[in-house]
Design goal:
four-stranded antiparallel β-sheet, about 110 residues, alpha+beta, about 15% strand, globular, 3 helices
């Protein structure tokens, strides 16, 4: 059975992408250039995170394209942190709604 070698950042990116629902990583090839790492799938809500890490949206292929695998891994880590922070935020909102403490009226 052949062994597929992957770089640590690529393996980490694949692992992180599997944690985000509907998200996957792949390599895309463009004319006259080397294959580039990309993120595809149902992770559009993290577009600003991907852009902050150098990802560029390619409308034709519907992927976020990066220059290297370490940027892909870093952006996916940030997306997972944002997802977890968002879940914690909604829990805090629920707790606030259930709190029967003093309410300050704006006026």
């Amino acid at each position: 059975m052949p062994t597929v070698l992957s770089f640590p950042a690529q393996a980490r990116a694949e692992e992180l992408a599997s944690s985000l629902e509907g998200c996957k990583v792949l390599e895309v090839s463009f004319a006259n250039g080397p294959p580039m790492p990309a993120i595809k799938g149902g992770c559009f809500q993290f577009a600003t995170v991907f852009k902050a890490f150098g990802g560029q949206w390619n409308h034709a292929r519907k992927v976020h394209v990066f220059y290297d695998w370490s940027a892909v891994a870093a952006s996916l880590e940030a997306a997972l942190r944002r997802q977890v922070d968002g879940a914690e935020g909604s829990e805090q909102d629920k707790q606030w709604d259930q709190d029967s403490g003093l309410r300050v009226r704006a006026g």
